[in-house]
Amino acid sequence: MKAIWNNEVIAESDDTVVIEGNHYFPHESIKKEFFKSSETHTVCPWKGTASYYTIKVAGKENPDAAWFYPEVSELAKGIENRVAFWRGVQVEN
């Protein structure tokens, strides 16, 4: 699977976990040069507290377009510290 934004592959892995229609990529599969930590956090009642990244490619920013759960509930152990995408990031084979 590949995550693409602004015509750039920003993550790539054969080991994604799909939860609620989102592909969660291993943290080591993201191209860290395109990711900047965000101050945004949200809470999912069954997964835990999510942290976000802003994606920056070729001078364009996509705020909070990637998220991950640094710590998860027992129900969500399969996605702990994995990264998922939205806000126009395309995930495809």
Automatic annotation (TrEMBL):
UniProt cross-references to Pfam families, sorted A to Z: NTP_transf_9
Residue ranges constituting the DUF427 domain according to the UniProt record: 1-87
Gene3D superfamilies per record: Domain of unknown function (DUF427)
Domain of life: Bacteria
InterPro entries, alphabetized: DUF427, DUF427_sf
Matching PANTHER family: DUF427 DOMAIN PROTEIN (AFU_ORTHOLOGUE AFUA_3G02220) (PTHR34310:SF5)
Name of the protein in its database record: DUF427 domain-containing protein
Organismal lineage: Bacteria, Pseudomonadati, Bacteroidota, Flavobacteriia, Flavobacteriales
